[in-house]
Amino acid sequence: MLHHYTLERLLEIVGGRRELVGAYEGVIQGIASLEDACAGDLSFLGNPKYRTKVRDSQASVLLVPEDFDETPSNGQLFIKLENPSYSLALICRDIEASLFPCPAAGIHPSALIEAGAEVSPEASIGAFCHIGAGAKVGAAVLESHVSIGRSATVGDESHLSPHVWVGDYCQIGRRNRLLAGCVIGSDGYGYEFFENAHQRVPQVGNVVTEDDVDIGANTTIDRARFGSTRIGAGTKIDNQVQIAHNVRVGRHCLIVAQVGISGSTELGDGVVVGGQAGIAGHLKVGSGAMVAGGTAVVSDIDPGSKVRGYPAMPMMLFNRMAVLQRKLPDLFKRFDQLEKTMKSPADKSDPPKQ
Amino acid sequence: MLHHYTLERLLEIVGGRRELVGAYEGVIQGIASLEDACAGDLSFLGNPKYRTKVRDSQASVLLVPEDFDETPSNGQLFIKLENPSYSLALICRDIEASLFPCPAAGIHPSALIEAGAEVSPEASIGAFCHIGAGAKVGAAVLESHVSIGRSATVGDESHLSPHVWVGDYCQIGRRNRLLAGCVIGSDGYGYEFFENAHQRVPQVGNVVTEDDVDIGANTTIDRARFGSTRIGAGTKIDNQVQIAHNVRVGRHCLIVAQVGISGSTELGDGVVVGGQAGIAGHLKVGSGAMVAGGTAVVSDIDPGSKVRGYPAMPMMLFNRMAVLQRKLPDLFKRFDQLEKTMKSPADKSDPPKQ
Amino acid sequence: MLHHYTLERLLEIVGGRRELVGAYEGVIQGIASLEDACAGDLSFLGNPKYRTKVRDSQASVLLVPEDFDETPSNGQLFIKLENPSYSLALICRDIEASLFPCPAAGIHPSALIEAGAEVSPEASIGAFCHIGAGAKVGAAVLESHVSIGRSATVGDESHLSPHVWVGDYCQIGRRNRLLAGCVIGSDGYGYEFFENAHQRVPQVGNVVTEDDVDIGANTTIDRARFGSTRIGAGTKIDNQVQIAHNVRVGRHCLIVAQVGISGSTELGDGVVVGGQAGIAGHLKVGSGAMVAGGTAVVSDIDPGSKVRGYPAMPMMLFNRMAVLQRKLPDLFKRFDQLEKTMKSPADKSDPPKQ
């Protein structure tokens, strides 16, 4: 994916204080890591531990920290900056705006808006979208094949990727990003066994996402039994996460891919849950807690604590245990030996061999 | 999500024997847990362990058990009932019927029915649905963007949420609920390595779901290599479950979110599999077995047994082991100490210090 | 799913050297395992360990190895072949071609091709497909509801099942099979925390799949922060796999269902990753390595090595440890006993009881 920049434009984006060392005459054609960059590419030294990789990099232009004092090779330009990572982010934001321009407002001729739905004239509604009766869509972008249920709402500046479904009565906040294929507001999983069968418990609640929530591709969030399954403002959810009915996730949480959170569990603010972790139902995970990837949480977690393991335990204890676990074969051997020594009467009575 | 009830209507739904204590004059505007309820809400005491929460609840109307003898606060009404949970379910069922009314029969003008497909005149086919040649759809509800493959069948009273795909030749029973984005009948994952590449093994079977099966959002069930991948009557599958080719799931099983079941494995009747558990291929899990969440099953499981762990072991053993595991650091320390004591000749010969 | 063959047609497909023992006069109506087959079915003995099951099989025609010397029952035919499994694959391939015929070239009248997109006249574009501006689609098959982003490309002979999304600028190679609901090129999950909120890091890269790649149902592959998330030629990915931004997967890898691979991790060639395994970010997994199902990889893996566990360890060590773990309760008991013996002064001074 090429993107062409002149050096002038690049410096304009970066702005502020900078120092140029060396020279590159051509156009900048792409961005790549130090290792992958070819001639014509822009690269950057974000993490000091990669300093030695700069020398071998084929990049033509490099963003480096102010205290980086190596010399560029012939035809190579170093741009010395206070914070190369931040400058790179500014450039990427510029590329993004150009590669993924905000689509024009308007409703694609193939989209269907049911009677009684309200769509903002500033909204962009893509091909084959379906908006149910009573739904309200703000100044949002809906890409192709998005389906909005009856009486659901989508806030201003939200962006819904293809094949997203927002179920009936669900409420999506402002500036949400719903990635492709995510399912918001499907039936909670609740059954009671009687008359020799699992009888479905009615699920009459909804899902509410506050402002600035991101929801990953193919993630599923179930509507509440009653009341709301709720995702707090600023929380970012990765792909293929499962959030069950009546869960409440606090503000500014990070929930990494393939995590599962069972019914009615509550996460405080700023909780971080690593990939593939599972959290059982009806638990409380305190604000600021960190749950390591793959952990199985089966009891409440204190605010600010770090847990890991199956089942979860304090991370320090897990790490210690993981080391010792590998020494089990050795321990068993040593123990057998010791037991033998103890049980042998000879060992007790004989003098040490000389 | 508000829902308005008069007290008269509420009592009509609840029916049967009940006793009213206290009084509430207004309209009932919502349902919430004891903790979350506001004035105007209905709440309930289902589990005796929450008895103490009744006193602080702001709910205006509370369903309580017959033996609950506390006094309602001013303007609060207690409805004493034999089984408050059951009464609540009746109310929720009434709300559900009102919030999610069964759509009228008929084919949305944007839907496409290919030549040779048969659709019941009682079916409701939503926007942008596509029904392949030779498919047969009974008196079912298909929401928007549903795709039915060639020669597939969907039984009466089944409900398919948006973005569901039922693959060619697959058979969906009666009263099934297929939640949004689930994929029924994709290719089984089978390859043979020859000529330096993984060659796809043809997958010419299908998926058959019996009656009263529920399948969760974004769940995937692969069609068989030949014959059928089969889901037994009354089985309820949660979101993001993966069921591989030629698996056979018995009747009335519960399979919780993010479970994976590998090829050709058979589950008996009434099996419960907890969230994120994985079951390897070509195994038998006996009827009534319980597999705890996160468990990795790598060998057959006896009927009625309970297993947990990675890899699976009897649940009692796992629970014991999980406790002891945390004591490993201590055990290693004690052991080192003991070994030292044993090996030191001084300890053996010297008299205890005085 | 019935499929009718005459014996003549069957022998034509199988070809080569074969010997017929016994006789069956009817039509062959289906294929089933030895256990499941009914009268009229074809079955086969692929694995010698199932030899004894042949006697009880109700199949009318059986493919058996040349050295199989039992006698067919009345009305049953044995076809003796060098490699029954291979012959069966030939038959299944014939069935597949007949059950799943390649759809005719052409664009379904309901599909939408935006201005500036190029679609091969040999392509088959299904109902409700949407192809974005600047996209290039070769002689591929797109089933219903497929969405191709702006400037994305799809190679010749690729097959995209319903509800697939290929994001803007992504490149799908030749002979790829993208199963239903998979999401190629959604936003990578990257945030930086400043000004009291998680700020999204722009993701301006794409996803590139080389030739002969299969991608499972509801699998998600994120586009790179910059550069490309890349899947090597011949790699086969199962359902519900999550591949994060900037991951590079080598050639001819097998990645089984529900695996998660975190950002920037690199897999060599021929790597096999078992179901539900997770691989942390910024790691290298060497060529030919095998990661067992459910494993949590948190450090680099040497080429050709086999690992298992949480966290990963050499498979031999894990297997040993898994056995010993179950003996922990016993070890603790023995240890307590031993310690007691040691600490008791009586034990030290008293002579053994006579």
Walk me through the structure.
Three copies of one chain form a homotrimer. The N and C termini of chain A lie far apart (78 Å). In chain A, the strands form six sheets. A ten-stranded parallel sheet of chain A has the order 7-10-13-16-19-24-27-30-33-36, with no helix packed on it. In chain A, strands 8-11-14-17-22-25-28-31-34 form a nine-stranded parallel sheet, with no helix packed on it. The first copy, chain A, has a six-stranded parallel sheet with strand order 6-9-12-15-18-23, with no helix packed on it. By secondary structure, chain A is an alpha/beta fold. Mean pLDDT of chain A is 93; it is low at 346-354. At the A-B interface, strand 21, helix 4 and helix 5 of A face strand 2, helix 3 and helix 5 of B.
Topology:
Three copies of one chain form a homotrimer.
Chain A: H1 7-14, E1 19-22, E2 30-31, E3 41-44, H2 51-54, E4 61-65, E5 77-81, H3 84-99, E6 106-107, E7 112-113, E8 118-119, E9 124-125, E10 130-131, E11 136-137, E12 141-142, E13 147-148, E14 153-154, E15 159-160, E16 165-166, E17 171-172, E18 177-178, E19 183-186, E20 191-194, E21 197-200, E22 206-209, E23 214-215, E24 220-222, E25 228-231, E26 236-237, E27 242-243, E28 248-249, E29 254-255, E30 260-261, E31 266-267, E32 272-273, E33 278-279, E34 284-285, E35 290-291, E36 296-297, E37 306-308, E38 313-314, H4 315-325, H5 328-343, H6 345-349
Parallel strand pairs in A: 2-3, 3-4, 4-5, 6-9, 7-10, 8-11, 9-12, 10-13, 11-14, 12-15, 13-16, 14-17, 15-18, 16-19, 17-22, 18-23, 19-24, 22-25, 24-27, 25-28, 26-29, 27-30, 28-31, 29-32, 30-33, 31-34, 32-35, 33-36, 35-37
Antiparallel strand pairs in A: 1-5, 20-21, 37-38
